[in-house]
Sequence to fold (116 residues):
Amino acid sequence: QVQLVESGGGLVQAGGSLRLSCAASGSVSSINVMGWYRQAPGKQRELVGGITSGERTYYADAVKGRFTISRDNAKNTVFLQMNSLKPEDTAVYYCKARLWAGNTFWGQGTQVTVSS
Fold:
């Protein structure tokens, strides 16, 4: 079992920045990939990006060049640095852990609102 807690969401003006955190606890050594997803009102949840246990990162085209994912292994925390935010980035942002065994766990989400 893995527990995930996101934090760092809030209200920001277009062009601003936010950094989200996802703190993992439990069987953290079993985690293969940590991902960030988002869900805007009336839309399906979509991938933002992720980071593998081998430190490889990947991003959705919509955020490439603006968002950066990193991790602090000592704190079992993954970060999502979001720069040049746009109103269309407004969504609830979720953290997901995928274990080597294939199980997945989700955090509760944190709201990001970008005003124009």
Observations:
- The radius of gyration is 13 Å.
- The mean pLDDT is 97.
- The longest strand covers residues 18-26.
- The CA atoms of residues 66 and 73 lie 23 Å apart.
